[in-house]
Give the backbone structure.
Amino acid sequence: MQHHIELNSELTFAELNKQFPKRCQGSKGVFTLSSNANEIYTETGRKRHFIAPDEQIELSDSTIAICTQWGVKNIDRFITKAKELGYIITAC
C-alpha cells in the first residue's frame, strides 16, 4: 500500500477506497482513517491497524492506517486487486 500511495501521491481517501474497497480485506477493511484506528485500539485494546507514527500513511486529504488482519482467507482478494492495478506479485 505504501508503495502504491507513493506512486500516486495525489490519491484521496475516497479514491483509494474505490481502488481497494473494504471487501478486499473483509470486516476491517484494507485501511481506515488513523483517528478511527486509534479509537479502535483505545476502546478494545486490540491493535488491528499499523498505528505507530512511522507506519501511518499520508494521503492528499487524510492520514490512514493499514489493517494488520491478514491471513490465508483474505490475502488473495487483496492480491487480485493489486494485480488489477498492474502490480506483479509472486510467492516467495
